[in-house]
Amino acid sequence: MTLSLRRSKIAAIVAVARGLSNDEPGNATLQQRHRATFDAEELAIVLSHYELGIIESITEFARGSRQSPKVGIVTEGGKYLLKRRPAERARLDRVRFAHRVQDHLIQAGFPLARLIRTRLHQATLLQLRDQIYELFEFRPGHAFAQKPEEARDAGVVLARFHEATGSFDPPASLTKPRGDYHDAAAVRTGMAAIGSALSMHDSFTGDELELTQLVEFLLSAYNRAADSVNRQDLSSIAEQVIHSDWHPGNLLFRENRVFAVVDYDSMRYARRIIDVANGALQFSMIAKGDPASWPDELDLERYAAFLAGYESISGLSPSERECLVPLMIEALIAECVSPIAATGSVGRWAGYRVLQMVRRKIGWLNAEATRLG
Predict the structure, then answer these.
(1) Which domain range does residue 82 map to?
(2) What confidence tens digit (pLDDT) does each residue in 72-117 have?
(3) 333 and 346 in contact (C-beta within 8 Å)?
(4) N or C: which end of the chain has fewer CB within 10 A?
(5) pTM for this one?
(6) Same domain, yes or no, for 124 and 156?
(7) Helices (H) then strands (E): counts for the chain
(8) Radius of gyration over every alpha carbon of the chain, rounded to an integer in angstroms
């Protein structure tokens, strides 16, 4: 098949896939309309670097970062997920680091989607001009159904992740990313920018004084939580590779068990309790509808199940236990500060309403600290 014919075929496949999409163009959300996409010529060139056989269908996969388009590919030999991301120099180093860790995890038998290597160079990433492409095997599974059994297994698998990465020994030439949400200057800088970011939106019109007081409260809560963690002696806990984004959206389940863990873009060196605290928060959040209607409390059954799962593999030290609640507060604040400072919102939710919800949850976390720790 000539390249021009291959391009034509892929163009037709993409057209068919878009026509069969459940989201009609007229009903697309603002977020979907602004999502980066592949074009047919680009797909033809990229896929020519892989040995996939006859392509049966290509479908847009509108999840994750809007700047990183993805498509699902069905071929005669299997199913795959193609992802494109920017290729800034530092980011390229991060991709190479992430791929090396994923290779290590595969050797350890960890459940993840295997990276597909290019046809000629057997590389796990493809760099064309200023873009980086990754092709993964597709691992089918369902989203987190908010069951305690699933939360427990999420804790088990996180402990297994830490066990596996604890033995990861990178070559000296490989960049070791560091930094996390704890005591981070970027979080404080983001809070300082929230006022100007929200001034371009009407979500808090008439409540300017309340916004100022709200940001001051969150900054104070963040600083107190960071100080509390810093007072604990964690010197006996070595830094290692952590996932750094352990939440329900990055895990796929089957029959209450984790079937696959995805998205290794944020991996870095830090202490494991950073992952544990964020995971305990994320897998116990009660979040339905508008953030204004979210309850203050966490789901205590799922919270306990997640930690029990983790500690069934690897116990936490007393100092790590003391860090759980303050780190959860830091994680909760850090999670919303960056997007609000950049866009005035968190996904489809108005930033001001999210910040109000965070304040309520911080109050509950502080009140329940003894029971949660």
Answers:
(1) 3-137
(2) 999 998 999 999 986 555 588 899 999 999 999 999 999 999 999 9
(3) no
(4) N
(5) 0.88
(6) no
(7) 12, 11
(8) 22
